[in-house]
Each structure stands twice: as C-alpha cells, then as structure tokens.
C-alpha cells in the first residue's frame, strides 16, 4: 500500500465510542475521501542523444557508442519501459476508483502530447494505450513538428524586455553560483574530466569540464556554455546509455564502476537544470499556459487546447506528454522539489508528475501533488513495477500535514503567482 493511500486510510478510519459500561458500539465510519480528478505530466522515455554521435566524438575526442535510432528518438527499449509505467499508472488509478475496474468507458482519459518531437508523440500514444489496455484511445496533439505553446510559450513572448530580464537574472544567478556551487557538483565536473579526457584542461583543443561558465541567448532561449553544461551533457548521455542497457564495459571507455560513476556525474546535470530551467523568470513565461490548464482542470472545469480540442469537465484523468524541461518548469511554478534514491536524475525517463483533486469526508476539496518514477536499474532491465507515488508538499499554498492544499488555496495562490509573472 502506498504512503498516499495509508494517509487517506488514517483520515477515513475515525471511530467514536459510546459511554456504555457494558458494550462500546462504534458509530458509522464517515465516507472515505474520493479522488475526483488527476492531471498527469509525463517525461518521454529513453532516447538517444539529441546531437549526432559524430558531434559528440569531435567535441570530446572520444568515440561514443552507436545508438539503434536517430538522434533524439525513442528506442524500442524505451518504448517498452514507457508501457510498463503506463500500465502501473493504470492499475494504481483503477484501485483509486478513477478509472473503470474493467471494460472501456468513453471519455475517462484525455491525452495531449507535445508535437515538437516524435518522442513525445510516441510517449502519449504508448502511455494512453497502457493506461487503458484494449480500449480505443486517440491522443491529441498539434501536427507533428509543430511548436506547441502549451509546453513552451516562451518563443511568443521573448521580446527584448523579457530577454533582458531573463539574461540579467541568469547572469546574476550564475555569478553567485560560481561562489557557492555545491561540492557534489564540483565533484561531478572533476569526474567528467577524469572519465572523458583527464588531461583536457592542459591542452587547447580538448574539453575542459571545469572551465568557467557563461549564459548565452540562442534560438530564442537561454543556454549555459562552459564546463558545467559540458559536464551535464556527459552525465545525461551516460545515464541514457546505462538505461538503454548498453554494456558497462563500453560506457565510459573502460572506466571502472560506471554505475557508481553515473551517480557521481548526475549532480552536474541536475544543477545545470536548476540554474536555467527552474529559474522563475524563465519558467513562468515558458509554462504559464500548461500551469493554467492544470489549475483549471483541478477545479473541475473544462479547458480548450491550442488546436481547439476540448478536454471536458467530466474527464477524470488527463495526461500531458512532454519533456524533462516540462517537469522542471512546473516544479518552479508550483514550488515543488523531489529526488529519488534509485534514480539520480529527478526528471529521468518516464518520470510522471501528478496533481490530484480529492473530496474529503467533510466535503472539502484538496489538491495533492505526487510523483511516480522507475529506478535506473529498473529502466535498464525493464522491470515490471507497481506505482508507488510520493506525495510532494505544495509549500507555496500553506499545505496541511499530508502536504496537500485546499482547492481554494491552491487555485488562489497559483493564479496570483501566474498573474504576477505575466504582468511583471
């Protein structure tokens, strides 16, 4: 039984005793909390590096392993892992009473996938059919290859003023980080150097993973360049190689104990993501549409997507298929944070963020944020899983002891936060 359901069981099992000396007759139990609606946001599955392997070879002066798919595409292994996650989510929410216990019921699931990449389109399709096996499900999206503002509205807003604000904040954050960078991040950079090119910082044409960092604006978005970003890329690519099931002897060119090395490397990737993707001045303009849709859906309303498609007020489960950057921007907007003991990347393949609306026995409606994931070795070996969500406190809206907020407090807080950033 998951921690969430144990918490709910405690809430619903309140007994009253009579004053009778001969027998104590319990009063009727109050009705149990009812899960009314769930909004899920999933990262796509295991993919190949987004840059061609030849570019990685040239940049690192190393020969990286070949992948069975084109750059940035889901692998067959990744598709199977996604199906396992979708099946586990389906079982979890059937037990919670949101999905039908058996058979197909029209209108119980809506899926919207980011059309910008094939991997997110595939993710939405795979997870939809795994959530409702054997049932007709048609995920929605814009035409393939189309930019979707639901997942990233920054390109339509990044005028000179916003660009200046983002770059100023990022540069200030980066300057402060140079003085306060965590020790495990510096250790990750040193490990990247040791694995890839131990003498790289002493030559002019080899990568130096400890060189200074700077912020640049490229193709309508901010980016980091320098040692941290290079270390982050190495960390992510090696984690993906491991998750894909590649031989440990071939990951890292024979460097020993690569499973441990991947854990040591990953803080560089996580730190770079926090510096950029979770920067509020960037996250809000990028994610305000999706965050607004989530807020509206949790209140029980309907929403209309960018193609005019309507997610009905009666749809109990909604899934958005996006990227790790999608999870990072929502974490920044909603004040969330999490980590896993068995997955060094908190936004690793298949990780799924959930927002749930519960009606409590007293009629009050509360919102909980939850996170689902598969461990790195589970991804590597395609292990079947049972969904065990972790409840994430929503600190911005004064959560209760179980981490949840009243629906009114949730909607008021995040509407105010979104409005503040939209009109800054």
Automatic annotation (TrEMBL):
UniProt keyword terms in alphabetical order: Hydrolase, Signal
UniProt cross-references to SUPFAM superfamilies, sorted A to Z: Phosphoglycerate mutase-like
Signal peptide: 1-23
GO MF, one example: hydrolase activity
Xref: InterPro entries: Acid_Pase_AS, His_Pase_clade-2, His_PPase_superfam
Highest taxon in the source lineage: Bacteria
Protein's name in the database: Phosphoanhydride phosphohydrolase
Organism name: Komagataeibacter diospyri
UniProt gene name: appA
